[in-house]
Predict the structure.
Amino acid sequence: MKGSEGDEYDCENCGACCRCYPIFAQESDSAREPRIREEGVRCDDFLGEEGNVAYRLFPLFRKEACVFLKEDQLCRIYDTRPDACRRFEPGGEQCREARRRDEK
């Protein structure tokens, strides 16, 4: 995929975004992908909104990346991934920042 600066950004074998940013999934995401409930940490009253539930997927204790990032740097639940991950733009500003952080 091309980023905003015209550079090519290949998500395969990268996973920088899965190691650099907190990742939360909403209840609607867990309805689509039940493993989110099993492997994430439930956060009640997410963002201070009573009754709003989310699941933290990263950071988690003793995990260096999202719980769904495989050793080959691909997502185990790509087809049913959370909406936050779906909105993440390959080659966008946050992507480039994650790649910079990950190089250090």
